[in-house]
Amino acid sequence: xxxxxxxxxxxxxxxxxxxxxxxxxxxxxxxxxxxxxxxxxxxxxxxxxxxxxxxxxxxxxxxxxxxxxxxxxxxxxxxxxxxxxxxxxxxxxxxxxxxxxxxxxxxxxxxxxxxxxxxxxxxxxxxxxxxxxxxxxxxxxxxxxxxxxxxxxxxxxxxxxxxxxxxxxxxxxxxxxxxxxxxxxxxxxxxxxxxxxxxxxxxxxxxxxxxxxxxxxxxxxx
Length: 222
Hints:
The chain is mainly α. The chain is built from 8 helices and no strands. The chain has one domain.
């Protein structure tokens, strides 16, 4: 039964990310349509999988943990500062001007709607990604397969999932650096989720990372 759960989670998560890669890299609809597609794939499909396999469950992911949330809040603030500092340091050596133009061209995000999109990204989209990558993928794989595989697969998938949406944003060296950073971040989110026993911990840190990225986006669009 455990092997069946592992195969189902791996197969379903790969299908979801491949489909989102097509949406981000080829179809490139507006942000509203893209978000609706992502909601179906990252929320409804895992729930459908849980109907077919009772080992796939999500209820435990949403337990409260005050100590874990306090740690996540501190880490989130630290990560916010590190990302902003990294941007200002790297901006002297790398050209970030393509980010704003690529974002506008591919999703229709510009100065007129950036504030509302950034709120959605920070609060809703981050929770959706945590539910999918740390809840559906990592937690379920950890229960049915070797722990190192659960960490590695979910973190690499989390990193590669962002590839299509970042095409044209950065130079190749910086692009690779970002992908490695996302994979490392995925492992850290896994560990936080594992230690805290709830998706709220990794979600809090993820939110602050998005706060920092949205701040950079605001500076670039301005």
